[in-house]
Amino acid sequence: KTEKTATIKVEPDKESSKNALIEFVGKYNQVVAKINILSQNKNEIVEELDYLTDEEKDAEREKLGMFQTDFSLTSMKSNMQTIISSGYNFSDDANIHMLSQIGISTNATGYSNSYSQSRLRGYLEIDEKKLDASLQENLDDIKSLFGFDSDGDLIIDSGIAYKLDKQITAYTQTGGILALKTSTLDSKIKNSESKIARLEDQMDEKEADLRSKYSQMEGTLSSLESQQNAITNFTKQQNKQQ
Predict the structure, then answer these.
(1) Can you spell out the DSSP letters for 169-196?
(2) Neighbouring residues of 130: CB distance < 8 A, sequence distance ≥ 6
(3) What is the pLDDT of residues 160-204, one digit of tens each?
(4) Helix 160-172 vs helix 72-85: angle between axes, to the nearest 10 degrees?
(5) Structure pTM?
C-alpha cells in the first residue's frame, strides 16, 4: 500500500538468465570432460581441467581410456555437439537461431595464434560481452532457442534443451542404452563365470584321473623292477652253479 500513485515496472531477471546459461555451459563441459576421460587415454585431458583438485585429477587418471573401445560415449558426444551447433528456426521474425549468435560456442573467444588442443575436445566457451548484449536485446529468442513448440500443439518439442534432454535420457533411463549395455555385460560375466567353474570341475576330474593313472603306473613299474631284480638274481645263481 502506498500514500500516492506508484509506477511499477516488471522486467525479466536477465542476471538470473545469464547465470543459468553459464551454469549450463559449465555442466555441458563437465559431461564432455567425463566422456573424453573415459574414451581416450591422454593424460593432458586431465591436466587441462583446472577446476579439479590434485586428488581429483589422480582419481580421473585412473579412469583414462576405460571405455575407449566402446563407441557409445563418443557417439553420445558427437550427437550432443550436433545439437549444440545446429540452427533452430522457431520463428521467421527471430534474430537468434544458433547458440553461437549469443556468444556460446567452441571458439567464442575468437581464434588466436596459439594452438589450443582443448578446443578440439568439444568444450564450450563464452563471449560474455556478446552474451550480455544478446540477453538485453533478444531474451525471448534465447528462451525459444532452448525450447519451443514446432507444431502448434502447445507442447515443447524442439530446441537445444529439449533435444539434449531427449538424447541423454536415451542413455540414462531405465532400460536405456547404458542399462542395456550393463545388463549385457552382466550376462556375459555370469556366462564366463559359469564356464570357468565348469572348466575348473573338468580340470579337477582330469587331475584326479591322471593321479590315478600315475599311481597305477608307479605300481606297475615297481612290480616290473621287482621282477627284473628276481630274474637278475636267478641268473646270477645259475651262473654260479655252472
Answers:
(1) HHHHSTTSHHHHHHHHHHHHHHHHHHHH
(2) 102, 103, 108
(3) 999 999 999 988 888 888 888 889 889 999 999 999 999 999 999
(4) 170
(5) 0.74
